[in-house]
Vacuolar protein sorting-associated protein 16 homolog (Paramuricea clavata), 462 residues
Amino acid sequence: MIGPDKDVDTYLLTRKIVYVVYSVFILGYLRFACCFNKTISRSNDVYLVPEIDGIRILSNEKHEFLQKVPSVVENVFKIGSVESGAMLYEAMKEFEKKSAKADEYIRLIKTKLSEAVKQCIQAAGSEFEQTLQRGLLRAASFGKSFVTELEPHKKFVEMCQILRVLNAVRDYTVGVPLTLVQLEKMSMTVLIDRLILRRQYCLAIRISNYLKIPKTDGESRILAHWACYKVQQTNKDDEDIAQAIAAKLGDTPGISYTEIASKALDCGRTQLTIRLLDYESKAADQVPLLIEMKKNQLALEKAIESGDTDLVYMVVMDLKEKQPLKEFLMTLRHFPIALSLFVKYCKEQDLKTLENLYKIDDQFLNLGLLHLHDSCTKTTFDDRTACLKESLKYFNQGNLLFPKQIVEEQIKLLERQKLFEEQLRLPGLSGLSVSDTIFQCVYKGAFKEAEQLRKEFKVPDK
C-alpha cells in the first residue's frame, strides 16, 4: 500500500514509482486498462492489489489495471509484425476497403489460416476496448470462412459469448473489471456468485440463461438468493413480500420455499414464514420448520394432509414430549386420524398412556377390553385375577352386561382351577378353557369335580 505520509522520503518514493511505471508504459511492455494519471495526489491512499495477470491500482478516484501486454495482442498489433494473426487483421481491413490486397494477404497465410483465426480470437479476448474486440472478431470471422476445420468456428462462438459476459460485468454500473485470464481461473460459477453478493440478480440470471447453465445451478439458485434478500426488507408488508416471491418464483424447479422461510424466521418474521411455507409443495420440508416454530397444530394439519404417517408420528411424538399428558390427549381429540395412529402406537408400545386416553373419553368398553387383553399376558393367578377384576370394574361403570358376565365367569373359572390344583393336586389347569378343564378332571379321575364344573358353567351334554 502507498499512502499519504508527512515524511518527504515516502512522498518522493511515491513519485518515483509512478514515474517508473509510466516509463515502462511508454516503452510498450505494459499497458493500463483504464485512464492513467502521471501523478498521484498526496491526499489519496493508493492500494496495489496483485492479480494473476497484472496488478490493480486502487485509489479514491480511480480503479486502474496494469498488466504486461499479452503476447497474442503484441503479435497482432506490433509494428511490422509478420505473424499470421497480424496478416489476417490487415486482410480484413483491406477487404472492408474493397481492396485487392486482401487476397494477397490471405494467400500469404493460406497454410496458417486456422492459426491466424485463433490468434485474432485470443487477441479479442485480451482486449478491454470493445472497438478493438469487434475489429479482431471481424477478422476472425473473415478468416474462418476460408477454414474447413470445426475448432476455429467453435472457439469463435465461445469467445463471442465470453466477451459479451465480460463487457456486461465491466460496465461501471456493475463494477467487476475482469480479464479473460481471471475469468478462466475463477470459473463462471464464481462470477455469478460475485454478482449475487453485489445483488446484481437480474444480470446474473441473464448470464446464466445466456450461457444455458442448468437451472439448479443458475436461475433457480439466483432466485433463491434474491428471495432470501427480499425477506430481509423490513420496510415492506409480509403479505406483499410473500406474494412477490411467489409470483417471481412460482413452481421453478430446484427452489425450496422452506429455505427462504427459514431465512424469514431468522429475521423474526413469523407470519411471513408461515405464508411462505404455504407455497412449499413438500410436506416433509414444511413440517420440521413448523415444529421448530412451535406451530404444532398447524404442523399436524400439514402432516395429515400429506398422508405421510411418518410425518404424523413425528409431530405427535413431539407434542407428547412438549405438552402435559392431559393437554396432549385433549389436542389429539381434534385430529381423528392422528388419534387413531397414536392409539395404534400405544397398543404396541405404551398401554399406560392408552388407558389414560380412554379414561378421558370415558371409553369403558375399551378400558375393560384393554385390561382383559392384559390378563392374557400374565402368567400367575394373582396377576390374571387382578387384571380381570379391573376389567370387570370398567364394564360395571359402563353398564355393559354381556362382557361383565363373561369376565365374572372367567374369574370364577380361574378360582375353581386354582382350588383343584391345590386340593386335588391337578397341575396345569390354570388358563385352560371350561371344556379342557373338565376333560383334565375326568382324565385324572376327578369325576365329581368335573360334574360340578359342568353344572356350574351350564355345559351342554353334547
The first strand starts at residue 30 and ends at 32. The two ends are 113 Å apart (CA to CA). Residues 401-423 form the longest helix (23 residues).
